[in-house]
Amino acid sequence: MFATNNQISGRQTARLLLFDMLGYSALLIPAELARTAGRSGVFSIIFGVLAGFIYLRLLKKLICRMDGSYSECLRKCFGSIGGNLVKAGYSIYFLLLAGRVAAILGELVVSELLEKQFRVIIFLIMVLVYYGVSGGIEGRARIYEILFWILLIPLFVMMLFALPGVDTDYWLPVMLENTFTILQGSYRVFLCISVLFLVPFVSEYVKEKEQVYDSAKRALMWTGGILAALYLILLGLFGKNALGTLDYPVVTMMSRIQITGGFLKRTDTFMFGIWFFTLYALLNSMVFFAEKLWSHGKGRRNVWLLGEILVVYLLANTFYYSEGFKMLCEKFFYYVGTPFIVIVPVLLCFLLSGCASTELENREFPTILTVAAESDFTREWLDGLQEGTKKVDYNHLKVILVERGFLENEESMAEMLGVLKDDKNVPLNAYVVTTEKLKELKEGEKELEKPLGDYLEELLEHADTMKKETYPTIGLLYQEAENRMETIYIPTIDMVEKKPEITSYEVYKRGAAVGQVSSDVALLSFFVGNQMKEYVLQLDVNNYVRLSNARNEIVIHEVRENSGLLKKQVKVEIECDGKILRHVYDVEQENVEEWLEAQIKDYMNKKAAKALESGIDITNSFKKLGKEREWYLYYTQSPNFYEQDIEIIFDIDIDWID
Amino acid sequence: MIKTNISKRIKFNIDQMEKAFFDCADLKKKPMKFGKNQDVDAYLIYIEVTVDTTISVLGQTLRFLNEKDRQEILSILYHNALAIPDATFFETIEEAIDGVLTGEAILFVDGFDKALKIPDGGYPSMGISETDSEKVVRGSNEGLCDSVKQNAALIRRRIRSPKVKAKQLKIGVRSNTNVYVMYIEDLAKTELVKEIEKRLKNFEIDGVLDSGILEQLAEKDWYSPFPQFQTTERVDRASMALLEGRVVVLSDNSPVGLLLPTDYNSFIKTSDDYYNRWEIATFARMIRYVASFFALTLPGFYLAVTNYHTQILPTSLLLSFAKARQGVPFPAVFEVILMELAFELLREAGVRIPGNIGSTIGIVGGLIIGQAAVEANLVSPIVVIVVAFTALCSFAVPNEEFATAFRLLKFVLIGLSAGLGYFGMLIGLLGILIHLSHLTSFGNPYLSPFVGADLNHYQDERDVLWRMPLRYLRKRPIYANEKERTRLEFKTEEKGNVCDK
Description:
The complex is a heterodimer of chains A (658) and B (501). Chain A contains 23 helices and 14 strands. Chain A has three domains: 9-353, Up-down Bundle (Amino acid/polyamine transporter I); 362-528, no CATH class; 533-658, GMP Synthetase, Chain A, domain 3 (2-Layer Sandwich), CATH 3.30.300.210. By secondary structure, chain A is an alpha/beta fold. The longest helix of chain B is centred in the last third of the chain and has 39 residues, at 400-438. By secondary structure, chain B is α+β, with helices and mostly antiparallel strands. Chain B starts with 9 loop residues before the first helix and ends in a 56-residue tail after the last strand. A five-stranded antiparallel sheet of chain B has the order 1-2-4-5-3, sandwiched between helices. In chain B, α12 crosses α14 (381-396). The interface between A and B is large, with 51 and 50 residues.
């Protein structure tokens, strides 16, 4: 079942932040930019948004270092009194901004929709804010997730309808204004999008903190894009001077648009819905986070919330009726409020970098991660991030040991890879191995001289015959989950005489486990792929050869069979050095090498054909399909046919060493 | 509760049963003697119409026992050697009473300390018939009936798997109603089944006469106009729900099954959405979504536009609206409310009036009253069109309970729009949206999969406003157990059939 766990998804976070930024900035920025940066306003938007991205990078660092909620973090870094003072600062900002937004919303309703008492309108809006906030973050996030396209599509349509009226002559000349005014405009833009300061607050509600950054980045890109497009349209419609005189030019624009042949004469009333919902989003966010800063426990929460609603109601009225207060608060936002809310997280980021959130002695460094067949990975992973009082740090993870049942479950594997990929602590070069008897291996660990993770790493890395990058790592699996091009052999580990050994290999074909193969097949595949330093081949009890220094090539081409049908042939051209380790057959001395080459070729052809019958291509030739466009397109769409359609033949050229 | 064991002495058992069922004229209580030598005292009790004593299993059993002597009879009973597959032995008087009330015949035999339940016809019921609501053009119209056992069998006929489970609960202190919680073992989430059982057991009531009572008592947000239990009278719908990993609750004496959990989207879907081709299914689905929106908002919009925001309308249209209203003595809001109430009245009367006259009166009433009202200048023709269109839209919503929520909330929006114009409409819509965003059905957000679709890798979005071709609907919805989400796989992928899994 879904859990009511106060957690929201990345998509919800992005949409929430977008609406928080978009409504307020789209209403205020165009006129302000026209007054300051004029025709160069679009550059101000670009610089402002770039500044937003830089700020976001800093916030990313902060959220990665945060341990617990932002509120707790403030207390930890600034102490109890300092933390409370900063929180009070935040609260003042939140409430003033909420009051300002409510006043703008009310003012718009009065001017555009309903010439009725402002107080009644604000009262109704505040009732809805109370209802909205009481549903918690999940309820709020759901509203904006669902409203996203419902609001943006009409906005884009409206912008499209406005295009014919745009006079591009109004756009030029640019850069007439001096740099200072352009930068001043950028600061205005940055002021509006500085709502990004909510990112550390929101991170508490998102399972993976990295996701918050990505979501905020997406929201900022959308906001920047829409603002720039909107500004150019408005500038082209009204011209710089007229644009500067309008209070809310985007609303005025909507009343100017003529929809020819349409059923509706003017759509500004309907379009007003966009600003209604976006401003409501910001208002709601301010009240929500202001309440979250202080309240604990349900009873007190309602009292706080009601108190806040009352304060915002009063502030909105004051903003509306007192021009002096409004001017004063504008200055406050410009010179004090925004710099404060921007600087606090930056400061916090530096403070937190000085002291690791968890000291070394309080961390646990596992070298192996075991995943049982029936494991609910996400839950176990989250549970396992804390080992008693110690925080688990996977930076030194060496091996991931996945029980075969789990490995063969595609959905579970996708889930595991997703979770591990999002945790930047997990090293990409951790080896992935599998086993059928996880319990036995764990029990056997007691008798090993070193931890199982270290032991397995050594087993995989110190194999004399293998090159270092032969065995699959978690990084390779992430890659394959996306590319789905390769056949990978994951070592199967079993206890042999009380020691873990590789006994066979699990084939992981194009992102899914397809079954086990013997070590012979896997080793041949490694050799074909030039992944072995030397390959010792036992042709039968009396004949052993060692092949080394392989320079093998794989070529795919089409051949016509006797029946006239075309067949894809994968030709493996083996070129290597060879040494006879044992040979006791009665073959004339001068023909031995030729005889052995024929035997080797026969051996390899048989192994490859047998594997192919089980759908395994030991040459891993699928990833080479890119060279043939048509085949690539066909087989990437129908990959299951590939192994059925090919045949593999070996061509061997060995330099025999005495 | 203390239970009384059945005694070997038949007199004791007879006394207990007589005490429990005195003044019950509808029950047959027959002390008798049978056996080869007519020396075995027995007592048979059953509800008269539920049992046939001649050709039924009971009749055959009695005839069979009548040919044996006392020792043989007791031996047969002790060794359960009656060869009746459904015969059950009760050890307590209370169980025997329950057995009688479930419509079975109960036999006590002297010297045997158990009561024997012999199955028979059971209570009479209406039998299986066509569904009245949720009609479809393509697909079976077989409906659920009043018997919970028959309903379970109808579902089992469609899903012949031993993994289909039916947990039996007895709800209602006096009615002892049989309630089945049906699910597919590996598809339904265990915690969901447990939660449903917990909610159903969480109350004590004297009688459950319909599944509607269960629904209301087990609902978390009881004040919401939106139902959090989906109802269905269709067997295929219930079966489909099971295959989606949902749980079906069936109550005896009710032809309406409850499907859990549910969401907004499920109420808009119909069974034939999956039987028809995807293009037509998608088209119909979109029409239903639009209809549900208009069923809620159209009268409100009309009032907001004509009273406050006339700039929206082209001049010619506005003038024709104004002309149509000339001579109407009431304000527009009163006019709309009057017509809406008149329509609701017709609807209610249509349902209550017996037989075919019901639907006739709906049409005739609508035409005559509408026409007369326009001609008498009581309402303008535009309002008649608006109300009729709204009514049509509300009928396009497939689920009656869900459509009712729109019908009720429509009046709230009419009030808000009349007082505050488009702002009132926005306030109302936002309020409804906030309410829906808070609402859950057994933990499942009501607005899913419009929200939280990422939890099922956006698979559920393939079956929302549009219904993608069936070959692309390879995963079960979010309700299903995470490990059993795949529901369709092709054995061989043809070129062009590939979709991301």
